[in-house]
Amino acid sequence: MKSIFTLSLTLCCCFLMGQSEYPGKKEVEKVIKLTIGQKLTKKNSSCEYGQCGEWWTANKDSIFYKTDTLKFYNSSNIVDTDTSFCISLVWDFDNANNFNESRAKMCQEPTTRSVKVWAPALGQNVNTKIPNKYGIASMNNITYVTIYADQTILETYKVIHLKKTTERNLGDKSYCLTLVRQRRR
Question: How far lies 156's CA from each of 22, 68, 117, 122, 146, in Å?
Fold first, then answer.
């Protein structure tokens, strides 16, 4: 009887410890606002630890478009830590919920970066351009990041992990944001 009780207690504890809690909407918004506050401006003329208000993910061999689970870091110094970030896709958020996406090649001189600022207006004149937007929403205690143009959803990502990084060269305000693609372009 004692062994059945011990086994039951052990299994119950393992089950409870195995439960993972997704980051909440407020926590994700707080970290994105922190990132926006790190942008280069007239008042903030330098980036500490490569934190310039952007989120970086590896895009070697176009992996961003081929995989559903993505890890973003808010420090460009991630390139120095992990060479798979030599070719990166970069997200840039701002306070007006505007969203820019760019592609960066960082490990060969000269470094290059191409910014995709505007989305073509869907169903409109080819020359009509509208800004990409982002939104953060919570449903059933799960947080989602949605990228859209006009009122058309381009992509939706479920936030499954948000963790402060411990790597020294990334700085003490550096985070890793893990997303799972829910809806593709």
Answer: 16, 11, 18, 18, 4
In a domain, 45, yes or no: yes
Please name the residue that has the structure tokens 């918004």: 29
Report the alpha-carbon distance of residue 104 to residue 93 in Å, rounded.
16
Task: Say how far apart CA 172 and CA 170 lie, in whole Å.
Answer: 7
- Residue 90 CA to residue 88 CA, distance in Å, equals 6
Q: Does residue 110 lie within any of the structural domains?
A: yes
Whether residue 144 lies inside any domain: the answer is: yes
> pLDDT by residue (tens digit) across 103-152?
999 998 888 888 775 655 555 555 556 778 999 999 999 999 999 887 78
Structure tokens at 57: 């993910």
